[in-house]
Specification:
By secondary structure, the chain is of the alpha+beta class. The protein has helices at about 10-20, 25-35, 90-100, 115-120, 155-165, 180-190, 225-235, 255, 280-285, 340-350, 355-360, 370-380, and strands at about 1-5, 40-45, 50-65, 65-80, 105-110, 125-135, 150, 175, 195-200, 205-210, 215-220, 245-250, 265-275, 300-305, 315-320, 325-330, 335-340. Strands 1, 2, 3, 4, 5, 6, 7, 8, 9, 10, 11, 12 and 13 form a 13-stranded mixed beta sheet that branches. Strands 16-15-14-17 form a 4-stranded mixed beta sheet. β4 (about 65-80), α3 and β5 (about 105-110) form a beta-alpha-beta unit. α2 packs antiparallel against α6. It is globular. The protein starts with a strand and ends in a 12-residue tail after the last helix.
Length: about 400
C-alpha cells in the first residue's frame, strides 16, 4: 500500500474510480476533471501502479465568524469495490488529516454521504439547508417586478456582488469572486441548468428543470421585493413544471410570505460537515474576529481535547484572555472540561452553543463556573451557517 499525491499519469484511473462510485452525468464529470480537479490536491492509495482509493482536497476560502480561512474541501472519497472493508479508507483519511495539519490549515470541510463514516475521523455536522417542496401553482399570487435575463460569463462580477451582499447575515459561507462564478456557470451548464439574473432587484436564481419539477439550487436575494419577483418567475413555469423544490439557507424568508404554508412541505436537509484541523491556531485566530473580550478579560479555562487522528490537538489547553487578547497554551495540568474534537468542531463552526454541547455530551453544567461558561459562550457564539458548494 502506497499513499501519495497523484501524478498526471494517474488521472484516468482516478476518473474511473470516481465513475464507479458516483452517479454523476458524463458532462458533469467532464466539467469537474477539466475545471476543478488538480493532481496536486489529490491523494491516492496505489499498489503496483493501480489506483485503489482516492480523494480530492479542493481549495476554498470560507468566512467563519467574520474571519477568512483557507480550507480544503474533502470530496470524491472513493475506493474500488475489491478493497472496501479492508481499512484502505482509514489509512487514506489518517494520511490526509496529517497533511492538512502539516500544511497549516485550521479548519476543513467534507460533504458526507453517510456521517457515520466520517465522525470517527473528527468530521461532524455543521451546516443545514431548508428544502421547500410545493406545487408550482401555489406561487400564483406573486408578480414579476422587473425583467430577468440569462446570466453569461460577463455577469460573473455582478453575481459575485449579489452573492456577497446576501451573505452578510450568514456564517461559514464560501467566499466567491469573479473567477468562482465563471466556474459556477460552467458547473450549472454541465448539468443542463440555468442561471437567471435580476440585476435591478439585486438577485439571481440557479435552477434545473427535472421532468415536471422546477429544482432551485440557489435563490439569492437581498430584499423581499426581489424574492417575490423570483417566486413569480418560478410560477410562470407552472404549466411546464407542476412541482417546485427550493433549497435555501436556514434563515430563508419564503416560509414567511407564501400564501398557504400548510400545503408546502419543509425539510431540514443536513448539508455539510466540518472539522477543526489545528485547535491551537483556531483559538489564536479568534483575535481577528469581532469578539467583545472586555466581558471576559482576565478569565481562563482549561480544555482537554480528545483527537484520535491529529495528535497535536490531543492535549490540555489553557485558554485565557489578558489585556483583551485571547491566548492559548498547552499545559500539563488538571482540566475544567473534556471535549471530543467533534464537539470542538461544532462550536468552532458556530453550529452549536456550549449549552447544546453540554446536553448532547451529558456534561454536568455545575462542573464549570458561571465565568467559565460565559467565556465559552463568547468565544463560541452560535450563528446561522450556509454553504452550497458541491465539489
Amino acid at each position: 500500500m502506497n499513499i501519495r499525491y497523484a501524478k498526471p499519469i494517474d488521472k484516468d484511473q482516478v476518473v474511473s474510480v470516481w465513475n464507479y462510485c458516483f452517479e454523476d452525468g458524463e458532462d458533469f464529470v467532464k466539467y469537474y476533471f477539466e475545471n476543478v480537479y488538480d493532481e496536486n490536491n489529490t491523494i491516492i492509495i496505489e499498489e503496483n501502479d493501480e489506483v485503489l482509493s482516492a480523494l480530492q482536497l479542493n481549495k476554498y476560502t470560507i468566512d467563519l465568524r467574520d474571519n477568512k480561512y483557507d480550507v480544503s474541501y474533502v470530496v470524491g472519497v472513493s475506493s474500488k469495490p475489491e478493497v472496501r472493508g479492508l481499512g484502505y479508507m482509514k489509512h487514506l483519511m489518517a494520511y490526509t488529516l496529517e497533511e492538512l495539519y502539516k500544511n497549516g490549515e485550521i479548519v476543513s470541510l467534507l460533504m458526507a454521504i453517510d456521517y457515520r463514516l466520517y465522525k470517527r475521523y473528527g468530521f461532524d455536522h455543521c451546516y443545514d439547508q431548508i428544502q421547500y417542496n410545493l406545487r408550482t401553482d401555489e406561487l400564483l399570487g406573486f408578480r414579476l417586478s422587473s425583467k430577468l435575463r440569462k446570466a453569461t460569463f460577463e455577469d460573473a462580477e455582478t453575481l459575485s456582488r449579489i452573492y456577497t451582499k446576501a451573505m452578510e447575515s450568514l456564517n461559514g459561507y464560501a467566499v466567491r469572486d469573479e473567477a468562482y462564478f465563471n466556474r459556477f456557470i460552467k458547473e450549472v451548464n454541465s448539468e443542463n441548468g440555468y442561471i437567471y439574473i435580476d440585476e435591478e432587484n439585486n438577485s439571481y436564481i440557479a435552477y434545473y428543470i427535472q421532468g415536471d419539477t422546477f429544482f432551485v439550487r440557489e435563490l439569492i436575494y437581498n430584499n423581499i421585493s426581489s424574492l417575490k419577483s423570483m417566486l413569480a418567475y418560478i410560477y410562470n413555469h407552472n404549466t411546464q413544471c407542476k412541482k417546485t423544490v427550493i433549497n435555501a439557507p436556514i434563515d430563508d424568508k419564503i416560509k414567511l410570505i407564501i400564501a398557504n404554508l400548510k400545503t408546502c412541505e419543509m425539510k431540514l436537509i443536513p448539508f455539510m460537515a466540518g472539522r477543526v484541523i489545528n485547535f491551537e491556531k483556531y483559538i489564536e485566530s479568534l483575535n481577528s474576529c469581532n469578539i467583545d473580550t472586555q466581558k471576559i478579560d482576565n478569565k481562563c479555562i482549561k480544555i482537554k481535547v480528545i483527537d484520535k487522528y491529529i495528535k497535536q490537538n490531543n492535549s490540555v489547553f489553557k485558554i485565557s484572555v489578558c489585556d483583551n487578547k485571547i491566548k492559548i497554551q498547552r499545559v500539563e495540568e488538571d482540566y475544567d472540561i473534556e471535549l471530543e474534537i467533534n464537539s470542538i468542531t461544532q462550536l468552532a463552526f458556530s453550529y452549536l452553543n456550549i449549552d447544546e454541547i453540554f446536553m448532547l455530551n451529558e456534561i454536568d453544567e455545575s462542573s464549570l463556573t458561571n465565568t467559565q461558561k460565559e467565556l465559552l459562550n463568547i468565544l463560541f457564539e452560535k450563528r446561522t451557517n450556509y454553504i452550497d458548494e458541491l465539489v
